[in-house]
């Protein structure tokens, strides 16, 4: 773990040395989010507004509001997109039924599904072809698992809670595999796998990790500093699975208190009472400018000393969606 000390220029330097900020790294944008947001921006640039996006391109209020101001129309379903128009599928992925509906309505599409979500779709297809029962660990109602399950609905059962483990039914105990949503808590998922394996001892593991590098790296980083923190502030939106998990992981790893906020202005000053060390991190869909605004806000209140706690250096980047590659010169 590497630590780098810095000082926020905003506000007066703190005289109380006990007041400091630990800033997690990695935090914020992952490669899949970066690619999806750029895809929408390029679509706006190339074709002009309106560009339709099915669901939120990524689960971040600031990103969605900013794109909306620039001419993006967010819809819940492709049926709301006028015939012949351009629609972008979000980073969380869509089921084959959604692709089919878009084709039927002659929509032009750009698929911004993260390649790491597509990888899980392919795993579902492969195990379904081999006639396995697939126990998909994930959250009820989350768009990603709706898309993933939709690849082979007759083979997939969603396992969210411990009750779902008890309810799972399989046809052949030698042909059952677990797969997962990409943005879960690593520890909680392993608990669920242990519970499943108690019921199904021959449960097969995924060919490779489904929880993505960005989700697990951000959890490792927040864990590394949580024990030293009186308060952890996670920048992220309420519907962002990976951001919500960072709050839970921080608390489990020893943070005395933790909250999820979209903007610095949402910090309740009472949370800071008696607090020395504040941990700061952000979800994979969060632009770093929001974290910088939070650091300025904290500096103005005496938490100007910032120490970055680095547990990994991420270098991963994905090529733009196929539909944009030649056009965008990438
Ligand atoms: O964490 P989830 O899956 O809810 O999505 P979010 O958009 O917040 O970040 C990663 C992606 C896509
Ligand atoms: Fe892809 Fe992971 Fe980012 Fe989701 S959180 S978009 S799976 S890299």
UniProtKB/TrEMBL annotation:
Q: Where does dimethylallyl diphosphate bind?
A: 59, 92, 142, 240-242, 285
Cofactor binding comment, as recorded? Binds 1 [4Fe-4S] cluster per subunit.
Binding of isopentenyl diphosphate occurs at 59, 92, 142, 240-242, 285
Q: Does the keyword Iron apply?
A: yes
Instruction: Please list the residues that bind (2E)-4-hydroxy-3-methylbut-2-enyl diphosphate.
Output: 59, 92, 142, 182, 240-242, 285
Note one Pfam family from the annotation.
Answer: LYTB
What GO molecular function annotations does the UniProt record carry, in alphabetical order?
4 iron, 4 sulfur cluster binding; 4-hydroxy-3-methylbut-2-enyl diphosphate reductase activity; metal ion binding
Q: Which UniProt keywords are listed?
A: 4Fe-4S, Iron, Iron-sulfur, Isoprene biosynthesis, Metal-binding, Oxidoreductase
Q: Which residues bind [4Fe-4S] cluster?
A: 30, 114, 212
Please give the cofactor(s) recorded in the UniProt entry for this protein: [4Fe-4S] cluster
Q: Where is the catalytic site?
A: 144 (proton donor)
Q: What is its EC number?
A: 1.17.7.4
The record's top EC class is oxidoreductase
Reactions mediated catalytically? isopentenyl diphosphate + 2 oxidized [2Fe-2S]-[ferredoxin] + H2O = (2E)-4-hydroxy-3-methylbut-2-enyl diphosphate + 2 reduced [2Fe-2S]-[ferredoxin] + 2 H(+); dimethylallyl diphosphate + 2 oxidized [2Fe-2S]-[ferredoxin] + H2O = (2E)-4-hydroxy-3-methylbut-2-enyl diphosphate + 2 reduced [2Fe-2S]-[ferredoxin] + 2 H(+)
- Which pathway features in its UniProt record? Isoprenoid biosynthesis; dimethylallyl diphosphate biosynthesis; dimethylallyl diphosphate from (2E)-4-hydroxy-3-methylbutenyl diphosphate: step 1/1; Isoprenoid biosynthesis; isopentenyl diphosphate biosynthesis via DXP pathway; isopentenyl diphosphate from 1-deoxy-D-xylulose 5-phosphate: step 6/6
What family classification does the UniProt entry report for this protein?
Answer: Belongs to the IspH family.
Annotated function? Catalyzes the conversion of 1-hydroxy-2-methyl-2-(E)-butenyl 4-diphosphate (HMBPP) into a mixture of isopentenyl diphosphate (IPP) and dimethylallyl diphosphate (DMAPP). Acts in the terminal step of the DOXP/MEP pathway for isoprenoid precursor biosynthesis.
Q: What is this protein called?
A: 4-hydroxy-3-methylbut-2-enyl diphosphate reductase
Lineage, highest ranks first: Bacteria, Bacillati, Actinomycetota, Actinomycetes, Pseudonocardiales
* Gene name for this UniProt entry: ispH
């Amino acid at each position: 773990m590497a630590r780098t000390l810095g000082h926020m220029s905003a506000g007066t330097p703190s005289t109380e040395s006990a007041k400091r900020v630990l800033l997690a790294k990695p935090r914020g944008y992952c490669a899949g989010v970066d690619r999806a947001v750029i895809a929408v921006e390029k679509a706006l640039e190339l074709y002009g507004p309106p560009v339709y996006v099915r669901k939120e391109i990524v689960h971040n209020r600031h990103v969605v509001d900013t794109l909306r101001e620039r001419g993006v129309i967010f819809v819940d379903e492709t049926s709301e997109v006028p015939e012949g128009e351009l629609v972008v599928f979000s980073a969380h992925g869509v089921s084959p039924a959604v692709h089919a509906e878009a084709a039927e309505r002659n929509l032009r599409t750009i698929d911004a599904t993260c390649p790491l979500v597509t990888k899980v779709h392919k795993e579902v297809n492969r195990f379904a072809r081999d006639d396995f029962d697939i126990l998909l660990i994930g959250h009820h109602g989350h768009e990603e698992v709706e898309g993933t399950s939709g690849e082979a609905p007759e083979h997939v059962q969603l396992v969210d809670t411990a009750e779902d483990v008890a309810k799972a039914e399989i046809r052949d105990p030698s042909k059952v595999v677990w797969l997962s949503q990409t943005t879960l808590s690593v520890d909680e998922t392993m608990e669920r796998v242990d519970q499943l394996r108690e019921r199904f001892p021959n449960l097969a593991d995924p060919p490779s990790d489904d929880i993505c590098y960005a989700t697990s790296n951000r959890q490792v980083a927040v864990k590394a500093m949580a024990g030293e923190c009186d308060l952890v502030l996670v920048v992220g939106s309420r519907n962002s699975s990976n951001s919500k998990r960072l709050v839970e992981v921080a608390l489990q790893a020893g943070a005395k208190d933790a909250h999820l906020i979209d903007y610095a202005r949402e910090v309740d000053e009472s949370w800071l009472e008696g607090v020395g060390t504040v941990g700061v991190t952000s979800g994979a869909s969060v632009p770093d400018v929001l974290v910088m605004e939070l650091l300025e806000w904290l500096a103005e209140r005496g938490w100007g000393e910032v120490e970055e706690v680095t547990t990994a250096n991420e270098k991963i980047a994905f090529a733009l969606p196929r539909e944009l590659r030649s056009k965008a010169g990438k």
